Amino acid sequence: MFYGSEFIMKVVLVLAVLSPALLLGGVGYRYYAGWKAQHIAVALGGEVSE
Asked: What is the pTM of this model?
Protein backbone atom coordinates (compact mmCIF):
# COMPACT_ATOMS: atom_id res chain seq x y z
CA MET A 1 0.00 0.00 0.00
CA PHE A 2 2.15 2.86 1.29
CA TYR A 3 5.69 1.76 0.51
CA GLY A 4 7.05 5.24 1.14
CA SER A 5 6.11 5.07 4.80
CA GLU A 6 7.91 1.72 5.16
CA PHE A 7 11.06 3.30 3.76
CA ILE A 8 10.75 6.24 6.15
CA MET A 9 10.30 3.88 9.09
CA LYS A 10 13.47 2.01 8.11
CA VAL A 11 15.40 5.27 7.88
CA VAL A 12 14.12 6.37 11.29
CA LEU A 13 15.03 2.98 12.76
CA VAL A 14 18.57 3.13 11.36
CA LEU A 15 19.02 6.66 12.72
CA ALA A 16 17.65 5.61 16.10
CA VAL A 17 20.17 2.77 16.29
CA LEU A 18 23.18 4.69 14.97
CA SER A 19 22.72 7.88 16.98
CA PRO A 20 23.41 6.39 20.44
CA ALA A 21 26.29 4.34 19.05
CA LEU A 22 27.91 7.44 17.54
CA LEU A 23 27.28 9.40 20.73
CA LEU A 24 28.98 6.75 22.88
CA GLY A 25 31.85 6.54 20.41
CA GLY A 26 32.33 10.31 20.54
CA VAL A 27 32.29 10.41 24.32
CA GLY A 28 34.73 7.52 24.50
CA TYR A 29 37.07 9.18 22.01
CA ARG A 30 36.96 12.43 23.98
CA TYR A 31 38.16 10.67 27.13
CA TYR A 32 40.75 8.66 25.19
CA ALA A 33 42.14 11.81 23.58
CA GLY A 34 42.41 13.52 26.97
CA TRP A 35 44.08 10.47 28.49
CA LYS A 36 46.53 10.26 25.61
CA ALA A 37 47.41 13.97 25.80
CA GLN A 38 48.00 13.69 29.53
CA HIS A 39 50.36 10.74 29.11
CA ILE A 40 52.25 12.48 26.32
CA ALA A 41 52.64 15.59 28.47
CA VAL A 42 53.98 13.51 31.36
CA ALA A 43 56.40 11.68 29.07
CA LEU A 44 57.72 14.97 27.70
CA GLY A 45 58.08 16.46 31.17
CA GLY A 46 55.36 19.03 30.68
CA GLU A 47 52.69 20.17 33.06
CA VAL A 48 49.43 18.28 33.23
CA SER A 49 46.35 20.49 33.26
CA GLU A 50 43.47 19.00 35.20
From this structure: 0.63
